[in-house]
Amino acid sequence: MKGLDFYIPASVLVVAFACKLPGLTRHWRDPLVRAVSVLLLVASSVFFFAAPPTIAAVNRLTGIPNFSAPLVYCILTAFSASCLLLLINWRGGPADRTRRLSRWCTALYSSVIVAQIVLFTLGEAPVERLRDFDTYYVHTPFIREMVLVYLVAHTGAAVVMTVLCRRWSLHVRGSLRSGLILMVCGFVLNLVFDAAKFAAVGARLTGRDWDMLSTTVAPPVASFSALLIGTGFVLPLLVQRLSASWQTWATYRRLGPLWRELRPVVPHGSRSVRISWWSPADLRVTQRVADIHDGILHLDPYFDHALRDRTRAAVLAAGAGSLQADATADAAMVAAAVRARAADPEEKVIGSADAYTSAAAEGPRDLVSISLALRSPVVEQTRRHAASTESSHP
Predict the structure, then answer these.
(1) What pLDDT does residue 347 have?
(2) In a domain, 207, yes or no
(3) Nearest-CA neighbor of 330 among 291, 352, 299, 351?
(4) CA distances for 10 relative to 7, 15, 209, 306, 325, angstroms
(5) Would residue 250 count as lying in a domain?
(6) Which DSSP category does 36 fall into?
(7) Is the pTM value of this prediction over 0.90?
(8) CA distances (Å), 38 to each of 14, 24, 42, 86, 233, in order?
């Protein structure tokens, strides 16, 4: 169980990164996608390499006492830079300004990382400290400065992110605002972490022992903070993706009545190739639309455009809008044509010269309107009239 408070958040962040990996592969040129992926990967690395068992293992493998200290500090600095870079790309704006700010941020925090490595190389830290390195070496030249540089850089990023996220949250709504509020809470906790570290280091400099602030209070605060920040970044993107997926599945379901209405008239051999049940929603919508278009083409000789015109006029007279009248009239014509086709098993009807394109050419949105209109009383009346006509003419 030792180090579990570090490995659990690291595992959660790795899973989140794995979920983003397909998107990164497909859109690796997108700065926002890259920034999100890097943030998740760096955040998980922070917790993994900051766990005492990992610290001991890295020190042992490298043969350098406390080698993990600058490694963890550099990763923490990279995490701060990743947060700033993600926010810069997330907010958008002029491309030149975004690139300039990104380069400035990268250069600044790269300099901090180099400074930490140089300071550790110049200092001496022969005694391995797994949890209290910050306070144990606070009187050691260069090592003290390395600790302060990392704390200042981390605090600066937390202050900037807190201010920017709070300002932005006042101008947006929905999941984006919820994500920004979570991020504000996470970066406030980052400031609590930094305050605990600064207090412990300052106490040691003045001869007091407040090490528990650094070894006991700070780690769980950092864990919760990282989870809030990661959730805040991912939440709006996840909600956006789920919303798009929901809309696609809604379109697929709404096309169902029209698809089922036309299915009997399409010859079995000409139907679209069946796709697996786990296929993406957009592919299933595409297949359903293709099936509907095939059905419309097979019904073309049986369309009664006079019926459509009469139905449209009646719906308009009842107070409906133009779009609803068009959809209802098209649905009535389709329903009547299906029954006319069923009454002509030998296909004796001569095809008309006019092809039916009012629904097919408009795309899925208009097809959805027609599909929903199939349930209207006007269309049901058309079905009954067609059925009574067929029974009276055997």
Answers:
(1) 67
(2) yes
(3) 299
(4) 5, 9, 30, 68, 57
(5) no
(6) H
(7) no
(8) 11, 10, 6, 9, 12
Residue 212 belongs to a domain: yes
Do 209 and 315 sit in the same domain of this protein? no
Residue 30: partners with Cβ closer than 8 Å, 6 or more residues away = none
Same domain, 111 and 17: yes
Of all helices (H) and strands (E), which one includes residue 171?
A: none
Which tens digit of pLDDT belongs to each residue from 181-211? 998 999 999 999 999 999 999 999 898 999 9
Distance CA 46, CA 79 (A): 8
pLDDT at 34: 76
Q: CA-to-CA distance for 322 and 328, rounded, in angstroms?
A: 10
CA angle 216, 218, 224 (to 5 degrees): 115
Q: How many domains does the chain have?
A: 2
> Is residue 305 domain-shared with residue 378, that is, in the same domain?
yes
Identify whether the C-beta of residue 128 lies closer than 8 Å to the C-beta of residue 59.
yes
Three-class DSSP category at 142: coil
Q: What residues have CB less than 8 Å from 254, skipping those under 6 apart?
A: 368, 371, 372
| Closest listed residue to residue 79, CA positions, set 49, 101, 118 | 49
The DSSP secondary structure of 60-124, one letter per residue, reads HHHT-TTTHHHHHHHHHHHHHHHHHHHHHHHH---HHHHHHHHHHHHHHHHHHHHHHHHHHHHS-
**pLDDT tens-place string over residues 16-63:** 777 777 766 776 777 777 777 787 888 888 888 988 899 999 999 999
Is the pLDDT assigned to residue 235 strictly greater than 90?
no
The C-alpha atoms of residue 166 and residue 180 are separated, in whole angstroms, by: 7
